[in-house]
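Mods, move this if it's the wrong board.
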Amino acid sequence: MGPDKTAQEHGTLAGFSRRTFLKATGGVVAMLGLGEVGRAMKRTELLRPPGGQDEASFLSRCLKCDRCRSVCPTSVIGVARVEDGILNARTPVMKFHIGHCTFCKKCVEVCPTEALTPFDIKTVKIGVAAVTDRCIAWNSGGCVVCHRACPYHAILLDAQNRPVVDSTKCNGCGLCERVCPALVLRTYIDGKVRGIEVGLASEGRAL
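Not the wrong board. Structure tokens:
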């Protein structure tokens, strides 16, 4: 076998190795990309404005027109992010760290597709509040802010003066979460969790 032929074969093998490596690398990158897309496509159920609790119907009708957010008098309606899923991105969600819901129905009135449907204020539930492990009263006592603020008398106090949520009375208005001082008074702990937060009624997050 002559030196020219050996060099030619070596070049062919090297080219094949490079092509194989590039294909394999591309495959790995593609798989990682698909994983990210899969995570982004995953649908997460979020807290919707009142009248939007039928998630499937809501998503099929919502135009992401932003009218509900624009008309909200307490600015509690925000928008979901891509991290919440591509299907959810830019759809309205409740942001109780900014405001709370008064069930004024203005968001329903401006919704052009009835993604937000008329509701009975006596029975509608955006979600249910739950006490978290950041609650000042449960950790050190002395705080009853959420109990005093709740307009529906859904937050009771136990024998140790700690808040306990009555899920049958709570409609997820979010005022308790809005006024909770735990995030401010315990900032050294880090994080964004308040001492009481509203979640989906099915989550069962009570302390």
